[in-house]
Amino acid sequence: MGREIVFTGKQQFQLLDYKDQPLGASEVRGRTLVTLISPGTELAWANGDDFPIRPGYAAIFQVDEIGSDVTDTKLGDRLLCMGGHRSTQQFDQRYTVKVPDGMSAEVAVVARLMAVSMTTLVTTTARPGEKVIVCGAGPVGYLAAHQCRIAGYSVTVIEPDQVRREAALASGIASAFPAIPVEDPAYKGKVALVIDCSGHEKAVLDACQVVRKRGEVALVGVPWKAHTSILAHEILRAVFFNYVVLRSGWEWEVPILSRGFVWEELYEGYNNAPHSTLSGLTTALRWLEEGRVPTEGMFSTMNPLDPSEVYRRLLEKEVQEPFVVLDWAH
Length: 330
What we know:
About 25% of the residues lie in helices and about 25% in strands. Strand 8 (about 130-135), helix 4 (about 140-150) and strand 9 form a beta-alpha-beta unit. It has two domains: about 1-110 and about 295-325, Medium-chain alcohol dehydrogenases, catalytic domain (Quinone Oxidoreductase, Chain A, domain 1); about 115-250, 3-Layer(aba) Sandwich (Rossmann fold). The chain is an alpha/beta fold.
C-alpha cells in the first residue's frame, strides 16, 4: 500500500492510501526518493474548483521491480520521471531518464523544471550571442536564465522582488532589473527573445515593445489572473507595429520521444524531431551534473507525511528558497 498527496478540496491537503497497479512488461517500479513541488501551479490548483487533484510532475525513484521486457534499466538504478507526490513510481522505461551516479536526487529532480524552457530554446530563432530577457526569477525563470546563459546568449533577468533579483545576480546572471528597460537604447529594438515566466500582462506588453523586428516573446508563465487593466488592444498594437512573434511557450511543442519512420506502423504516426522532452531532460541532467546551474542553498526540503503543513508554509509565503523538495526516503 502506497501513500500519495491529494488535494481533496480548496486548500485541503491529505495523505491518502493507494494500491499499485500490476507491473507491465515494459514498466519499472520503485520507491520514491524525492518529488519537486511547482509552487505557482500547485497553489493555483489548490485554490481552484476541480477536485480531487493528485499534484506533482517531477520525481526521482529507485528501481525495485522490472518488467519482463525491460532491457535498459537494472535494479537499483535511480530514475527521473514525471511522477506525482507519491511514495512509489511506476513508469514505462521509455519515459524515464537515468540519474548520473553520484548526483544527489535533490539536484537531479530540478531537471524537470528545466525541461519547460528547454522547449523554447530548441524552437527559437534567436541565436547565441543575441540579447535574451527572462521575466520572472521564480524556479522556472531562474533556471531558464541559466539555460540561456549556458547556450551563449546575453541574458538579462527582470524581477520586481529584490531578494530574487539579487539572488540571480549572485548566481552569475550578468544583469537584472525590476522592470523591462523599454526606453533604454541598449535594449529597445535589440532583444531577440523574451521568455516570460511571470504570467503578468505588463511584462508581456513591455516585452513586445522592446524586442527587435521579428523578435520573439514566448509565454511560459501561466496567466492565472489579471494583474492590471491593460487592454488586449495595447498588446495587439505593439505586436502589429513592432513585427513581434508572440507565441506560446508550450513545453509540449516537442514530442515526448522522437520516433523515426517505421513502414509497418505508418498509421500510428511518426516524427523525426531532433529534440524531445526526454532529450531535454537528459541535457538538463548533464548541465546540472556539470555544475553549470548554481543550486547550492536554493532548496527547502520538507516532509511529505504532513502535506497540510507543507502547503500552509507555501500559502503563507514562509519559504524563500526557489526549489521545494519533498523527501520520501526518510
